[in-house]
Specification:
single chain, about 90 residues, mainly alpha, rod-shaped
């Protein structure tokens, strides 16, 4: 009688493994989709931040210089830009 229980136990264990495998694959698929969604949201957020930083730079917001430099990845010098914009064509020649 003990011998007849062993194949049933083994069969049950195999079914449990298959069920766990199915659940884990489903969770993996959901996690991959969530990752894709988060990456898309990150790209949108980065684009928005870059666009807003460019707009702030146009208004020469000195108070936000550190943030602008971090987002735009370049060193900003508002004073030099202002002086360059004030130069007229004869001054440039």
């Amino acid at each position: 009688m003990a011998g007849s229980l062993c194949p049933l136990s083994r069969q049950r264990a195999e079914m449990d493994i298959l069920e766990n495998n199915k659940q884990l694959r489903s969770q993996l698929a959901e996690s991959k989709q969530e990752l894709r969604d988060l990456r898309e949201k990150l790209r949108i957020s980065e684009s928005t931040a870059f666009s807003l930083a460019n707009q702030l730079q146009k208004y020469k917001c000195e108070a936000f210089r550190d943030i602008l430099e971090a987002i735009l990845g370049e060193r900003l010098d508002f004073e030099e830009k202002e002086q360059a914009e004030k130069l007229t064509l004869p001054d440039k020649l």
